[in-house]
From TrEMBL:
SUPFAM superfamilies: DHS-like NAD/FAD-binding domain (SSF52467). Zn(2+) binds at C126, C129, C151, C154. One of its GO terms (molecular function) is NAD-dependent protein lysine deacetylase activity. This is protein acetyllysine N-acetyltransferase. It is an enzyme of class 2 (transferase). Its EC number is 2.3.1.286. It comes from Aedoeadaptatus acetigenes. Keywords: Acyltransferase, Metal-binding, NAD, Transferase, Zinc. It holds the Pfam family SIR2. The active site is at H118 (proton acceptor). InterPro entries: DHS-like_NAD/FAD-binding_dom (IPR029035), NAD-dep_sirtuin_deacylases (IPR050134), Sirtuin (IPR003000), Sirtuin_cat_small_dom_sf (IPR026591), Ssirtuin_cat_dom (IPR026590). Residues 1-243 form the Deacetylase sirtuin-type domain. The keyword Cell membrane does not apply.
Length: 243
């Protein structure tokens, strides 16, 4: 039995399947990941530049380094991999899409139940009163030199709604744990599975399908491993699930 046939069989027999995605699903949309050869690690260390520590102690540096990731997301479109996952969700083959990505591309492709466990780049929030502002308006203030931007409502400090290194995990992570507790099957797409605590989730399921360029620490637990570009594999998998 080939790998696609085996993955199709697992998903068709799943009692409850969820998907976990990482930066690798969006590289085909032109957004670099962290750990590939052309990933952000080649420019800076995300654990440092994208940390609460730097945001609070050296905001000028934060907005010069880590913040560039948020700017890179502007104008990016979903790719066929995002579309295939949205279709699999619409058909009920997979339930929640748990994503580490902050780019909103699953929703742009039509996915409905998306748990953004590392927040989203499309909004900013006030640390004091939780006032929300669109990234575009927030960024205009950053570009005009207002660092850090002040809350228009209470004067507190505004910041990106992305979960930074050193931040507490948001409610969406608890929801992701609950969804994974219900699941017997998980597809992982485009994640090195090195960022905790999200990387614990694949341990919780009985059947694991991994679609990722390169190895992950969970390869020995997987039922099927596809080592390659995500979108052609997901497109073919979605086609077979529809047959
Ligand atoms: P990662 O960079 O650690 O791992 C990405 C994995 O995807 C790598 O193993 C890489 O080889 C693989 N990959 C790259 N392109 C691929 C493709 N086309 N098909 C299949 N596999 C591919 O990313 P991660 O595991 O998500 O963890 C790092 C953090 O990166 C996350 O916390 C996330 O918030 C953040 N991040 C998000 C974005 C985004 O929103 N698009 C971009 C960069 C980083």
């Amino acid at each position: 039995m080939d790998k696609l046939a085996r993955a199709t069989e697992i998903l068709k027999n799943a009692k409850y399947a969820v998907c976990l995605t990482g930066a690798g699903i969006s590289t085909e949309s032109g957004i670099p990941d962290f750990r590939s050869d052309r990933g952000y690690y080649t420019n800076f260390i995300p654990e440092d530049a994208l940390s609460v520590g730097v945001l609070e102690s050296n905001p000028q540096r934060f907005y010069k380094e880590g913040y560039t990731i948020l700017k890179d997301l502007e104008g990016k479109e979903p790719n066929p991999g995002h579309v295939a996952l949205a279709k699999m969700q619409e058909k009920g083959v997979i339930h929640e899409i748990i994503t580490q990505n902050i780019d909103d591309l699953h929703q742009a492709a039509g996915a409905k139940q998306v748990l953004q466990v590392h927040g989203d780049a499309s909004t900013a929030r006030c640390e004091r009163c939780n006032y929300r502002e669109d990234f575009k308006a927030f960024d205009e203030r950053v570009q005009s030199g207002e660092i850090p931007p002040k809350c228009p409502k209470c004067g507190g400090v505004m910041r990106t709604n992305v979960v930074l290194f050193g931040d507490a995990m948001p409610q969406a992570f608890d929801d992701a744990v609950r969804a994974t507790e219900k699941a017997d099957t998980m597809i992982v797409v485009g994640s090195s599975l090195k960022v905790m605590p999200v990387a614990y989730l694949p341990r919780m399921v009985e059947h694991l399908i991994i679609i990722n360029k390169g190895t992950t620490p969970y390869d020995h637990n997987a039922d099927v491993i596809f080592d390659g570009e995500a979108s052609p594999i997901l497109t073919e998998l979605e086609k077979r699930l529809s047959e």
